[in-house]
């Protein structure tokens, strides 16, 4: 590959162990998690190759609005991937409640002495900003390239690719999988826990009588939990529903969906005035038993995907990228087994705690008995009324464990 020496500015060819292309680190997956890792490694002087299946100029039609913690936003900004003019909506307060029962929790940025708790940004806007920074930072990206196989050997790892560059074998001292669950499943020692929630997340833009003003809502309704995230002058709705319900919401009239949402949400933001087209995607929990196998390490979606409740999935993945860059800082061989063991140990608590928390929320709020509702309400009220407990909870959501 062509690699730029950050000390000399020279560009040269690095021969691989088998005569093919070679890099210090190959990262598979050019989403926010893989890109942040690439930017951090490149800034540290590593020769990085980022491999991404989509075309660089492919139209971005992803309907998701991403809820990022302030910590995640700060990390992207530090890497140059969050320009000042990036359109985003701030979250200053998160209001958590349940339908038809007492108890609520209100988390506020003042509790943590932060400017904001988080931000909401459209996936296409963030992707364009990240792509621009990858180019500016001189990170080598192979667009329209798929990784067909990964193999870890004693001194290096190899990947087989196909795409616009042809069928090519690449080698690196470390391969980082930020996407590609099937690739990880082929590695020795890697097993994946899979739990199908038999649910979908339904997304739609919602207009309410009162503008968001920095308030996000997490509401546990009788039909399923939903979030309302500030999205400009509107809200982005993320509603967990059964597969049948999700299909019905997509086919129902706007008036029907607005009425159902109004009943589940109440009038905290006044009347629901409009709702946009609905999109949906299935939900499942996937988590690996370990995050490394030889000279291959897993971060982000390759390591875990989870339910969108509490909006922790992407934030956890970005902390994976930061943790890996920190663990390998100053290590001459990025595939060193001891260094990767340090990384795995450093991420274990955060990963298991967040996955367990989100999975537990779904189980906790799945029941609808009077006793269960009362216990949930008591828990939310206790959290809200004990400031040290509330601050600790908010800190874990923003910064992880």
Automatic annotation (TrEMBL):
InterPro entries: FAD-bd (IPR002938), FAD/NAD-bd_sf (IPR036188), UbiH/COQ6 (IPR010971), UbiH/COQ6_monooxygenase (IPR051205). It comes from the Bacteria. GO terms for molecular function: FAD binding; monooxygenase activity; oxidoreductase activity, acting on paired donors, with incorporation or reduction of molecular oxygen. Coiled coil: none annotated. The keyword Lipoprotein does not apply. Residues 23-357 form the FAD-binding domain. Keywords: FAD, Flavoprotein, Monooxygenase, Oxidoreductase. Pathway: Cofactor biosynthesis; ubiquinone biosynthesis. It comes from Aquitalea aquatica. This is FAD-dependent monooxygenase. Its cofactor is FAD. Belongs to the UbiH/COQ6 family. GO terms for biological process: ubiquinone biosynthetic process.
